[in-house]
């Protein structure tokens, strides 16, 4: 796996993945940026959330759950000192669907946390306190 990050100006960078996709990252105006993209540390959170959500959805599809929507709400705390590393991250899954089985959703979240999500497992191994939670919302079709 490869990626390239190129400085453009101020506190703005363009990252390009090995698969050819690009994303703009930028700093706040106080730090010389123009606030035109997410911060690099925000990208780490988005990456961990994407990795874990991918796992959860894959497992729910395999268990034939009728998922209509799935999102992960991520909250993180950082150290006050430099380096301002993440100290705590919570990934809270909100899964909507028709007659979803609690045990299936719970197991998918647990397996992602314990076995499959390379990003969150890597962060946990580096000393970040990672927690996972979930809730199920019954899908209500519009009349």
SSE inventory with pairings:
Elements: E1 3-9, E2 12-17, E3 22-25, H1 40-62, E4 66-78, E5 86-98, H2 102-116, H3 118-125, E6 129-138
Parallel strand pairs: 5-6
Antiparallel strand pairs: 1-2, 2-3, 4-5
Helix pairs in contact: 1-2
Residues in helix, %: 25-40%
How many individual domains? 2
In the sheet with the most strands, the strands line up as 1-2-3
Under CATH, the topology of the largest domain can be stated as GMP Synthetase, Chain A, domain 3
Give the biggest sheet: 3 strands, antiparallel
The CATH superfamily of the largest domain is identified as: K homology (KH) domain
Average pLDDT taken over every residue: 96
The 3D shape can be described as globular
Q: What do you see in this structure?
A:
This protein is of the alpha+beta class and 143 residues long. The chain folds into 2 domains: 1-38, N-terminal domain of TfIIb; 40-138, K homology (KH) domain (GMP Synthetase, Chain A, domain 3, 2-Layer Sandwich), CATH 3.30.300. The chain has 3 helices and 6 strands; from the N terminus they run βββαββααβ. Strands 1-2-3 form a 3-stranded antiparallel sheet, with no helix packed on it. The chain is globular and about 50 Å long.
What distinguishing features does this structure have?
N-terminal domain of TfIIb; 143 residues; single chain; 2 domains; 32% helix; alpha+beta
Summed up:
This protein is of the alpha+beta class and 143 residues long. It has helices at residues 40-62, 102-116, 118-125; strands at residues 3-9, 12-17, 22-25, 66-78, 86-98, 129-138. It folds into two domains: 1-38, N-terminal domain of TfIIb; 40-138, GMP Synthetase, Chain A, domain 3 (2-Layer Sandwich), CATH 3.30.300.
